[in-house]
Design goal:
Blueprint: E1 2-4, H1 16-25, H2 31-51, E2 57-59, H3 67-75, H4 91-99, E3 109-111, E4 118-120, E5 123-124, H5 136-146, E6 151-156, H6 158-163, E7 166-167, H7 181-197, E8 202-206, H8 216-228, H9 230-233, E9 237-241, H10 249-255, E10 263-267, H11 272-280, E11 287-293, H12 303-317, E12 322-326, H13 345-349, H14 354-368, H15 374-389, H16 396-403, H17 416-427, H18 444-454, H19 460-481, H20 498-501, E13 505-508, E14 515-518, E15 521-523, E16 527-533, H21 540-547, E17 555-559, H22 561-566, H23 576-596, E18 601-605, H24 620-635, E19 643-648, H25 657-662, E20 667-670, H26 680-684, E21 692-695, H27 708-719, H28 740-764
Parallel strand pairs: 1-12, 2-6, 5-7, 6-8, 8-9, 9-10, 10-11, 11-12, 17-18, 18-19, 19-20, 20-21
Antiparallel strand pairs: 3-4, 13-16, 14-15
Helix pairs in contact: 1-2, 8-10, 12-14, 16-23, 18-19, 23-24, 27-28
Length: 765
């Protein structure tokens, strides 16, 4: 019985690639140094899977940024502004598309389906010319083969690539990137020909858009694409991989009708309805790559249950055509439990990171083949039983409080317009008030202080003094820049979710459980293993300290319940919304303590609210109902004069704008600049928004410093569709990943642009 892994984490067990990328970007190392780190990591990954007994090992899943950008490079679909003149795309052009450079902005970045991973959105136009411009897929295949590992090269499928693309700026609205299908297929044919010539026997096309609600012409594109590729694919085994959700019946029918395709990969962890489709009819002679091991969470698989599922599928597809697989790429989980030497032993026994999931996949394959490791399965069953019976998982008081939430919508008593009037009388802010999103640059010295405090190398007093000094510096900088509503810069926080999880019950943390978010950006998601509560105040001490340093309003900075949920590894033994309500009650206590401590502006970030939206439209309403309700729970008890902000970033918000309004926040700051100001289109189309709103005026994920004129132009575009008295001026997101040499001039230009437009508005009156 064969085994397969959809994809594997790239950063390395100790984030080796992250540090190599940042060293290269800072000019401290060469392209050769970077490639050496990458080569070593790839070799280690392939060897690990081969040693574990995996038959179908992926290649070309390693990336310096993301797999969609890699495909853009392969196709030579470089926007004109990067002045690429053809030939093999180099790292300078590649990273300019991802991060921008001194003269041109980066391409848009958005979330990869409903994950916290991001991708660079291709910009296409009728005039886009395609050419085979990155040989990464063939190079990695040959690299693995030289090491004695015959891999399955993985490509982003042609139809999903186009469906994930956007029309370039200035292109007619009627243009659809899907119309370019016949233009990109010749490049795919070249890639396929090279892989065949190099000896590849399998090829994997990732077509995850098949799990979405597709129109008939989009489904027809899959049929057309793979019919056109059929002759090129002759002699190859072709796997089309889907993941993250059920495949709708129409999409299943289309996919399983593709004559050029040998095998189909399905997520059977999140796709239980797909399982029923398979059982009701599967094409004879085809392979089923059954994704039974969860690639998106860190819980040990229920091996007995997965084995039973696989055994039921054997009768449908045939023993020799069933391949055990992960539900999706393992890049969405942490790398290896071996690195977690300080994790609680009981909780550790409940977990499986990427390395352990590889072993689980192979153990299931061997069990199907009659070589069941009884001791391994028994240990798994014991760990699952331990988790079910552990008293640390359940808190009856928390469960009762969450149950009592039913029957109320938890709205504030007055309208947002009345609240804004009351807040303005108290805060006395100017027109177009300026603020930032929360964090300021995390310097090497600041990270050292936090690291030494955690290691108990410095005392609590020394730590407190160091953080106090950093807050004072950040407050002084903002006052000198003349920003209106200040932040304390979050120097005590390494991560916006980790910080809160460390202070909430029901959470545990890893030392090296890093997961890639985008580029070199890694996060270390908390693990929610039990019921959640807040034993003590979490931010009140620092917020009160920061407010005492200035007469200007100081925002209290919190992460909202939906974002904490979506950016954690969440317990899978109860519905997600129940866990979210528990977190909301914990944050509610913190909000009320901040208000009692004299904090007049409180920001409750819901950066990941859109990210958690299910991929199928039929499931949207239920999710948005409990997600928005969770946010309202956090602040339903504050006074009208307390201004509640929220922040969202890097997703497409236009289709959930009514739910955003329904959150009933006083002010929302939201990503806007990197997505070509798509957000503003909803207001041009007549959506009425009465609360305060700050669409981001510049992209903080790029080192590029925007000019005052550029920012002023953006603000004027906003004023064309939004009332002057509700508009705020702010960056797209927090500033922790930037350097002060970038932050200070960018914020200077932002404030000067706001002042310039205030003066123009006053003169016009």
């Amino acid at each position: 019985m064969a085994s397969h892994i959809v994809g594997y984490p790239r950063m390395g067990p100790k984030r080796e690639l992250k540090f190599a990328l940042e060293s290269f970007w800072d000019g401290k190392s060469s392209a050769e140094d970077l490639e050496k780190v990458a080569t070593d990591l790839r070799a280690s990954i392939w060897k690990q899977m081969a040693d574990a007994g995996i038959k179908y090992i992926p290649s070309n899943t390693f990336s310096y940024y993301d797999q969609v950008l890699d495909t853009t490079a392969m196709l030579g679909a470089v926007p004109d502004r990067y002045s690429w003149t053809g030939g093999e795309i180099n790292l300078s052009t590649y990273f300019s598309m991802a991060r921008g450079n001194a003269t041109v902005p980066a391409m848009e970045m958005t979330k990869w389906f409903d994950t916290n991973y991001h991708f660079i959105v291709p910009e296409l136009a009728p005039s886009t010319k395609f050419s085979y411009s990155s040989h990464k897929a063939i190079n990695e295949y040959k690299e693995a083969k030289a090491l004695g590992v015959d891999t399955v090269p993985v490509l982003v499928g042609p139809v999903s690539y186009l469906l994930l693309s956007k029309a370039a700026k200035g292109v007619e609205k009627s243009f659809s990137p899907l119309s370019l299908l016949s233009s990109i297929l010749p490049v795919y044919k070249e890639v396929i020909a090279e892989l065949k010539a190099a000896g590849a026997s399998w090829i994997q096309f990732d077509e995850p858009t098949l799990v979405k609600d597709l129109e008939s012409h989009q489904l027809s594109a899959f049929s057309a694409a793979y019919a056109e590729l059929e002759s090129a694919l002759s002699g190859l085994n072709v796997l089309v991989e889907t993941y993250f959700a059920d495949v709708p019946a129409d999409s299943y029918k289309t996919l399983t009708s593709l004559s050029s395709v040998t095998a189909y990969g399905f997520d059977l962890e999140r796709g239980t309805k797909t399982l029923e489709l398979v059982k009701s009819g599967f094409p004879a002679g085809k392979y089923l790559f059954a994704g039974v091991v969860d690639g998106r969470n860190i819980w040990a698989d229920d091996l007995a249950a997965s084995l039973a599922t696989l055994q039921s599928l054997e009768a449908v597809v045939g023993k020799d055509k069933l391949v055990v697989s992960t539900s999706c790429s393992l890049m969405h989980t942490a790398v290896d439990l071996v690195n977690e030497t300080k994790l609680d032993d009981e909780i550790k026994s409940w977990l499986a990171f990427a390395a352990q999931k590889v072993v689980e996949v192979n153990a299931l394959a061997k069990a199907l083949a009659g070589q069941k490791d009884e001791a391994y399965f028994a240990a798994n069953a014991a760990a699952l039983a331990s988790r079910r019976s552990s008293p640390r998982v359940t808190n009856e008081e928390v469960q009762k409080a969450a149950t009592a939430l039913k029957g109320s919508d938890h709205r504030r008593a007055t309208t947002v317009s009345a609240r804004l009037d009351a807040q303005q009388k108290k805060l006395n802010l100017p027109v177009l008030p300026t603020t930032t999103i929360g964090s300021f640059p995390q310097t090497v010295e600041l990270r050292r202080v936090r690291r030494e405090y955690k290691a108990k190398k410095i005392s609590e007093e020394e730590y407190t003094n160091a953080i106090k000094e950093e807050i004072s510096k950040v407050v002084k900088i903002q006052e000198e820049l003349d920003i209106d509503v200040l932040v304390h810069g979050e120097p005590e926080r390494n991560d916006m979710v980790e910080y809160f999880g460390e202070q909430l019950s029901g959470f545990t943390f890893t030392a090296n459980g890093w997961v890639q978010s985008y580029g070199s950006r890694c996060v270390k998601p908390p693990i929610i293993y039990g019921d959640v509560s807040r034993p003590n105040p979490m931010t009140v001490f620092w917020s009160k300290m920061a407010q005492s340093m200035t007469a200007r309003p100081m925002k209290g900075m919190l992460t909202g319940p939906v974002t904490i949920l979506n950016w954690s590894f969440v317990r899978n033994d109860q519905p997600r919304f129940e866990t979210c309500y528990q977190i909301a009650l914990a944050i509610k206590k913190e909000v009320e303590d901040l208000e009692a401590g004299g904090i007049q502006v409180i920001q409750i970030d819901e950066a990941a609210l859109r990210e958690g939206l299910p991929l199928r439209k039929s499931e949207h309403a239920f999710y948005l109902d409990w997600a928005v309700h969770s946010f309202r729970i956090t602040n339903c008890g504050v006074q009208d004069t307390t201004q509640i902000h929220t922040h969202m970033c890097y997703s497409n918000f236009n289709d959930i704008i009514q739910s955003i309004i329904n959150m009933d926040a006083d002010v929302i700051t939201i990503e806007n600049s990197r997505s070509d100001e798509k957000l503003l289109s909803v207001f041009r189309e007549g959506v009425v928004y009465g609360a305060g709103i700050g669409p981001g005026v510049y992209d903080i994920h790029s080192p590029r410093i925007p000019s005052k004129e550029e920012i002023a132009d953006r603000v004027n575009k906003m004023l064309a569709v939004l009332d002057t008295n509700i508009l705020w001026v702010n960056p797209d997101c927090g500033l922790k990943t930037r350097k002060y040499a970038e932050v200070k001039p960018a914020l200077t230009n932002m404030v000067e642009a706001a002042k310039q437009i205030r003066a123009e508005l006053a003169k016009a009156q």
